[in-house]
Amino acid sequence: METVDIRTGVAMAYADDWFGEPWTEPQVVVMVHGNAESSRAWTCFVPHLARKFRVVRPDLPGFGASPAPVEYGWTAPELAADLVRFLDAVNIATCHLVGAKYGGSACMRLAIDRPDRIASLCLFGSPVRGSGSGNADLIRAHGTREWAARTMRARLGSGASSAQVRWWAEELMGKASARAAFAASSARIDMELEHELSGIAAPVLIVTTQESGLQSVEAVERYARRIPDARVTVLPGDSYHVAAVEPDLCARHALDFISAVAARGNPA
Description:
By secondary structure, the chain is an alpha/beta fold. The chain starts with a strand and ends in a 5-residue tail after the last helix. The chain has one domain: Alpha/Beta hydrolase fold, catalytic domain (Rossmann fold), CATH 3.40.50.1820. An 8-stranded mixed beta sheet has the order 1-2-4-3-5-6-7-8, sandwiched between helices. Helix content is 39%, strand content 18%.
């Protein structure tokens, strides 16, 4: 991975994959992970996407290989602003943006604030408002490893294998910085994006599950109607982190959607 300074005291590591013809200039897909994750969360998506698009996967500040800034709030507006600075630092003028969970919330904030930078937006299990202090309370009391272990089955749903649950709890989220995970969970408590969604100009794909514990299908469809050009895809299951449980299926949905938008002639 490479690392780039995006502003004083803030650096972001990122993976950059392109499996197509090296003499061509592909459009860019930027993938933003959720709280307590890293770019590794998108590993299974890369083979699907990187033959047709350049796939850039940053580690958000404080996660993965990106150091935790001394002073950072991990709010959606701060993350969105730093993602724009990241795009500037790596010379990406516009991109197709993909986000999961709280990373998707930051992506929505970015699309609202800087519609000129986004050609399309794919969201996987991403909330538009806060949902209480439960995660922050667990992290504060028990740390990230115990929090991840206690919540992972509900997060990944009944269809996830034991190996999936163990890897996400022990190898990824359980190893995240407690300070960063707690701050991000706390910042999300009062988050409210729904009433600003009409400001998203890009085409949007929203993927959820039939029995997501995060938000009902009705709630997702309600907020999707606020976005001028949005469609909702409902997958079977009860996971609210469907991108983790069904990465191949979700990657195919993302690839089809992004390819269709790219074919319309949107620059990225």
